[in-house]
Amino acid sequence: IAIVSGKITKDGRIDNYLYEDKLTFSHSTKYGGKRAITNYNVIKGNDRYTMLDINLETGRKNQIRVHMTEINHPIVGDKKYYSKDNILKRLALHHYEIDLIDPISGKLLVFKSDVPKIFYTLFD
Question: Which of 13, 21, 92, 116 has its CA 20 to 30 A from that of 2?
Answer without folding.
Answer: 21
